[in-house]
Specification:
Blueprint (H helix, E strand, L loop, with lengths): L4 E2 L21 E8 L13 E7 L3 E5 L2 E5 L3 E5 L6 E4 L3 E8 L1 H4 L9 E4 L2 H12 L6 H16 L6 E2 L5 H12 L7 H7 L4 H12 L3 H18 L4 H7 L5 H12 L12
Parallel strand pairs: 1-2
Antiparallel strand pairs: 2-8, 3-6, 3-8, 4-5, 4-7, 5-10, 6-9
Length: 269
């Protein structure tokens, strides 16, 4: 089994140093560890690209105006130099790869934040690399190349919620992020925020490429992922997220992710 690192409480305020390591002797740096529920890593950016593979929990990542959810057995790629912040609603196991800048541009690797479903091969490589006390040797380098090739072939998952730059749109999004079960319509919320429904509908279309209705549906389903990992039932999630019934919630979730909520509940492996 790979060596695990139980990150100390100060991890909730300070990112690790691995992302800033510019040594050319280590194409990738691999780490395994755990994060508790309620952790918030300070906003930061580092030269190395980062891959985070999540197990037994859900990670939320914010970069710029956008939000990504990373559930069990999924991974997120974060390009080098991109400012981001990690938060957790549940405890989880994490597997990290920090990729040196000269290798992060290899053909096929993402050039933007991307979530994809991890593979047993990728997980195994990261864990094997993390076992190595010295990750500079020839064997470690060969594993690193296989890991990068595996990342390049994995298809993306639809777990990205676009944000907005306009102040009125950003305020509206912030409201729904804080209150995903909000039952009032957009017109009522717009009035409280000092703008109009028509303005917000236009801003959603131009800045996110989505209608407000579609954006809110995705938000609710992404928030539901965190509840699913905490063991909430579909009935409880439907009530908390503003659905009329558990079946309405399940249907919306299936439309969004092409799978029922049960597909995201923890399973061995």
């Amino acid at each position: 089994m790979p060596k695990h690192v139980e990150f100390p409480p100060e991890f909730s305020r300070t990112p690790t140093r691995d992302g800033y390591d510019l040594s050319s002797r280590r194409p990738v740096i691999a780490r395994c560890g755990t994060l508790g529920a309620g952790v918030a890593v300070a906003p930061h950016a580092h030269p190395r690209a980062q891959l985070i593979l999540c197990l037994d929990g859900v990670l939320r990542l914010r970069a710029g105006d956008d939000v990504w959810m990373v559930p069990h057995k999924h991974a997120i790629w974060i390009p080098g130099g991109l400012g981001h912040q990690l938060t957790t609603q549940t405890s989880l196991q994490v597997r990290h790869l920090y990729v040196a800048p000269r290798y992060a541009g290899r053909a096929g690797l993402p050039q933007a934040c991307t979530v994809f479903r991890g593979s047993p091969l990728l997980r195994g490589i990261v864990e094997r690399l993390a076992e190595e006390a010295d990750q500079t040797g020839a064997a470690a380098r060969r594993l690193a190349w296989v890991a990068l090739d595996e990342i390049a072939r994995l298809p993306p998952a639809a777990l990205h919620l676009p944000g907005g730059r306009d102040g009125r749109l950003a305020a509206t999004m912030a409201h729904f992020l804080r209150h995903p079960g909000e039952r009032r319509n957009l017109s009522e919320v717009a009035r409280d925020l000092g703008t109009s429904e028509r303005t917000l509908e236009r801003l959603f279309a131009t800045e996110t490429g989505m209608t407000f209705r579609d954006w809110r549906a995705k938000l609710r389903c992404m928030v539901a992922l965190e509840g699913i990992e905490r063991g909430e039932t579909s009935a409880a999630l439907a009530d908390r997220l503003g659905y009329s019934s558990p079946s309405a919630f399940t249907a919306a979730f299936r439309r969004e992710f092409d799978a029922p909520p049960s597909a995201f509940r923890l399973a061995p492996g």
